[in-house]
Design goal:
6 strands; 41% strand
């Protein structure tokens, strides 16, 4: 058994989890924050058999989209840094981890 952890942009979270459910996968959704912009993300957890991992990843890839976003000069980007000019950054997409599960029990 494997655990797929996907950190995705909150704008894509509903599409990802809805389509995972349509494909028959159960998932747990956690609100998380982090990254360069300290923006809202969602971490999706999916426990699956090893042969189904690629199907889960395919759904996440299909419904998680990278996009460009402008950061205004009035926004703090972290650590007290304010850009002198607007900065274009790429947000969205997904970061996916697949880990082994040693034991699984439903209680």
């Amino acid at each position: 058994m494997k655990l797929v952890l996907a950190i995705i942009n909150r704008d894509d979270a509903k599409a990802v989890t809805t389509n995972l459910t349509k494909k028959g996968f159960s998932s747990t959704r956690l609100a998380t924050t982090g990254g360069f912009l300290m923006a809202g993300n969602v971490t999706v957890l999916v426990g699956v058999d090893e042969e189904k991992v690629q199907s889960v990843i395919d759904v996440i890839k299909e419904f998680s989209h990278a996009r460009k976003q402008m950061i205004p000069t009035t926004a703090e980007v972290g650590y007290g840094y304010y850009p002198a000019m607007p900065v274009e950054v790429t947000v969205g997409g997904a970061t996916i981890f697949v880990v082994d599960i040693e034991q699984f029990e439903r209680v």
